[in-house]
Amino acid sequence: MILPLRCGAVRGLLLSIFVALVGSASSAEDLLASRLSELLGQERQALDVVPSARMSALTAPPRASDRDITTAPATLSYDEAYLAALPTASGDAQWDCLAKAIYFEARGESVRGMFAVGEVILNRVDSGTFPGNVCNVVNQGSGRRNSCQFSYACDGVADRVREQAAWVETGKIARLLLDGAPRALTDGATYFHTTGVRPSWSRQFEQTAQIGAHLFYREPIRTASN
Q1: Is 97 exposed, middle or buried (CB count within 10 Å of its CB: 0-12, 13-18, 19+)?
Q2: What backbone torsions phi and psi does residue 130 show, to the nearest 5 degrees?
Q3: Who's near 54: CB < 8 A, 6+ residues apart?
Q4: How many angstroms from the chain centroid is the CA of residue 194?
Q5: Is residue 104 in some structural domain?
Q6: Dist CA 112 CA 214 (whole Å)
Q7: Alpha-helical regions (H) of 49-148
Q8: Which of 17, 106, 126, 216 could form a disulfide with 117 if both were Cys (CB 3.0 to 4.6 A apart)?
Q9: From CA 14, how far away is CA 185, in angstroms rounded?
Q10: Which residues on neighbouring strands pair with residue 193, listed in sequence order?
Q11: How far is residue 36's CA from residue 15's CA, in Å, rounded to a whole number?
Q12: Close Cβ partners of 215 (under 8 Å, ≥ 6 residues apart)
């Protein structure tokens, strides 16, 4: 294995070489200083020919839009204007799964309604009861028709994004939620259904919110009994 030499070790090695060549430590010091000064002068000359605009581009910090930003904005508004002002979002597979789940489950809802559905998915990820990442949560049970947790994942209809404006919105919402936006709408809900149905499990769970056409629930908090 070759170990890297530190700067001091390199200088010491060079000095020992110069001593061997000139026979005097003081002369070797002078010669080494002269050679280093010459080398630095050559570096400066090389930098002088680089156009100033190029040098500025090389030394400037990256633009905010080019950085990997992983925190949500300090303020959050549940309205169309707020979303419209944000840059188009993108992300990895987890972002894509969350954006599609919000799109197919809630794109006809208000901004609050879309955020609320996203909250449920991330609450499940964090719960310890459901799978531990977004894609596994939204695809849970999708191997059989009408056996999945989210109806769009096993309704037999191809999951094609046809409404581009809605897709851009849900992508921004997914990005905000994954980046840490507060989940303040559903009070920890891990279930929801539309107002047009009443599944049997809804009688056993605690309803936490109604937003648009969706009712939100969480499992009752169990306390230890003596």
Answers
A1: buried
A2: -105, 175
A3: none
A4: 30
A5: yes
A6: 11
A7: 52-59, 80-85, 93-106, 111-127, 134-138
A8: 106
A9: 67
A10: 215
A11: 11
A12: 192, 193, 194, 195, 202, 207, 209
Whether 130 is in a domain gets the answer yes
Q: Which of 50, 47, 75, 173 is nearest to 120 (CA)?
A: 173
Is residue 192 one of the residues assigned to a domain? no
Residue type, 60: A
Asked if residue 89 is part of any domain, the answer here is: yes
CA atoms of 70 and 72, how far apart (whole Å): 7
Instruction: Encode the chain (226 residues) as per-residue pLDDT tens digits.
Output: 433 434 455 556 555 655 555 565 566 567 656 766 676 666 566 656 656 555 554 444 444 334 344 456 667 899 999 999 999 999 999 999 999 999 999 999 999 999 999 999 999 999 999 999 999 999 997 766 666 788 887 767 777 899 999 999 999 999 999 999 999 999 999 999 999 999 888 999 999 999 999 999 998 766 555 4
Q: Domain limits at 116?
A: 80-183
* Residue 72 main-chain phi, psi, to 5 deg: -75, 160
CA distance 107 to 156: 19
pTM of the model: 0.65
Number of domains comprising the chain: 1
Nearest to 113 by CA among 161, 153, 170, 75: 170
Asked if 32 and 18 touch (Cβ cutoff 8 Å), the reply is: yes
| Residue 146 in tokens | 């009408």
For residues 205 and 221, what is the distance between their CA atoms, to the nearest angstrom?
Answer: 10
